Amino acid sequence: MIREMNCSRRSCTGRFGLLAAFLLGIMLLPSAYAQSLTGKWAGVDKVMDNGQPHKIILELQQSGNQLTGTMKTVGYSLQVTGKVTGTHFELFRAEEIANKDKPFVVGDRVGSNLHVVAWGTESVVAKPATADDVIPAVKYIEPPALHKVPSNGLAKTPPMGWNSWNKFQGKIDDATVRAIADAMVSSGMRDAGYIYLNIDDTWEGVRDAQGVLHANHKFPDMKALADYVHSKGLKLGIYSSPGPATCAGYPGSYGHEEQDAKTWAAWGIDYLKYDWCSAAMVYKDKDLHAVYQKMGDALVSSGRPIVYSLCEYGLGDVQKWGPDVSANLWRTTDDINDSWKSMSTIGFSQSPLAAYAAPGHWNDPDMLEIGNGHMSDVEYRTHMSLWSLLASPLLAGNDIRSMSLATKSILLNKEVIAIDQDPLGHQATRLSVSGDVETWSRPLADGSVAVGVFNRGSASTRVTVKASDLKLSGAVRARDLWAHKDVSATNGAFTASVPSHGVFMLRVSATR
Ligand code: GLA
Questions:
Q1: Can you say whether the dihedral through the CA atoms of 324, 289, 392, 459 is positive or negative?
Q2: Which residues contact 455 (CB under 8 A, 6 or more apart)?
Q3: CA of 397 to the centre of ligand 1 (A)
Q4: pLDDT tens, 225-258?
Q5: Rounded Cα distance, 227 and 267, in Å
Q6: Residue 90 DSSP code
Q7: What pTM value is reported for the model?
Q8: Which residue among the candidates 335, 436, 469, 480 is catalytic per the annotation?
Q9: Half-sphere exposure of residue 233, counting CA atoms within 13 Å on the CB side?
Q10: Would the CB of 204 count as within 6 Å of ligand 1?
Q11: Is residue 260 annotated as a catalytic residue, yes or no?
């Protein structure tokens, strides 16, 4: 229709030009108006595993081809801006963590509806909203006054285990967790120290009339699951949010902190990952400390030792107050994904945080992607080496039931794990950078030094580690932690050829 009009516009210039332009204007105006996206649109992305609809509401204002407005889902209200091209439109998040390269929402006008794909959703048909299409308002709860939560005494070395999110996301259930527990034992992961089996988002059901949160149908009996996991010599972790909804839209612990901590303690839960998510809709970043303190108190008074993992993407200078809320680890970055770019950007940016890691509380640059298939084994060895030098939690994120021998040899490298778990608890810092080559080191409890020389470039290169740079004097000996052999120095230096994205990792000690 538009094409025909353009065509008639071209052919009507000349004698009847003015009249044609006038008639065309009359024809175009109502149609442009009818196509405007101004209004409120609502659609259901999916029915969640707890039976609740995951609703998306877009409120848009169109001016010319420019769009502004909000996108709301349960727990979120995001400012968006964007533009319309024909029937197609794209929206970007206006918030500070916006990814400006990629639209947050893309959509098309189809008849009287919008076909919308929002971040993390399938295609949703959004119709003109009715009076029922509202996201319930959340009553503000004042965060508590600050005080120091007594330490829970856990995680003297960085927690090790497995988490469901990186590989399974919403496709996690009781049977899979049990099978992973079996595989943690048969693969040797448990005996290498990977103890925590952590269920991430999407386990949640709904609250009952007393406000007690139950698991959804994927987890018919959490207590029985915890008993099974414990019978294997493992521990069970769970996930929630201080906001009204988790990042996947399930009920969070907002206003139910003590109640939820008691429920988890009664189930036999040993670890909580507490993810900021929709708390951002209720609180400001300055409230992070008080809000996380609330659950810190609730866990301590639950009577069960529960590792406390804060997931707040590095917001609010968490490293400065994390220990005061009895946190054992806190996220220092946005989410990792299974790519060299994501892993290396996160890992190599951690040096300034080193002073904040210590036995009992650790910087968390996010979970491992080793074995998930989108990096090479050379890159996964770098991932394992860097995370271990950084004294990071080692939470495998792959399918332990079917991992390749190469993946197994990376996750189960006991000499590298020993660096991560060193009782001194000093996080590595960057010692030097030369072109694409970075050298990181950390002192260890027995007086030796762990060192990793990383090649971030695209070609292999020769690297050198000088004992004098590690502040070790006199004769030294070294162990190559990936070749599993002792290496000797030539003129006080160790050299090796390191492939693109690879690492040369040593444990160097003075001989006396
Ligand atoms: C956030 C966290 C992830 C994961 C998801 C679950 O994105 O950072 O690690 O827990 O939420 O929804």
A1: negative
A2: 436, 437, 461, 463, 498, 499, 500, 501, 502, 503
A3: 12
A4: 999 999 999 999 999 999 999 999 999 999 999 9
A5: 9
A6: E
A7: 0.90
A8: 335
A9: 12
A10: no
A11: no
